[in-house]
Specification:
mainly alpha; single chain; 2 helices; about 55 residues
Length: about 55
């Protein structure tokens, strides 16, 4: 068992859940990828345009 899996097991074992431990790993991976994609979208597409230097 890896270090991350061990601590995730400790965190989620106390919470009654409908998910199995493998589903939680997939869910957190998908969540982290979505957060990364949204942050890239904000950085590059919704960034304020810089004014030109005179």
């Amino acid at each position: 068992m890896s270090f991350t899996t061990y601590f995730m097991h400790l965190i989620f074992s106390s919470i009654p859940s409908l998910f199995s431990s493998e589903s939680i790993l997939y869910f957190l991976t998908i969540l982290s990828v979505l957060i990364l994609l949204f942050s890239v979208k904000i950085m590059f597409y919704k960034a304020p345009k810089l004014r030109g230097v005179k």
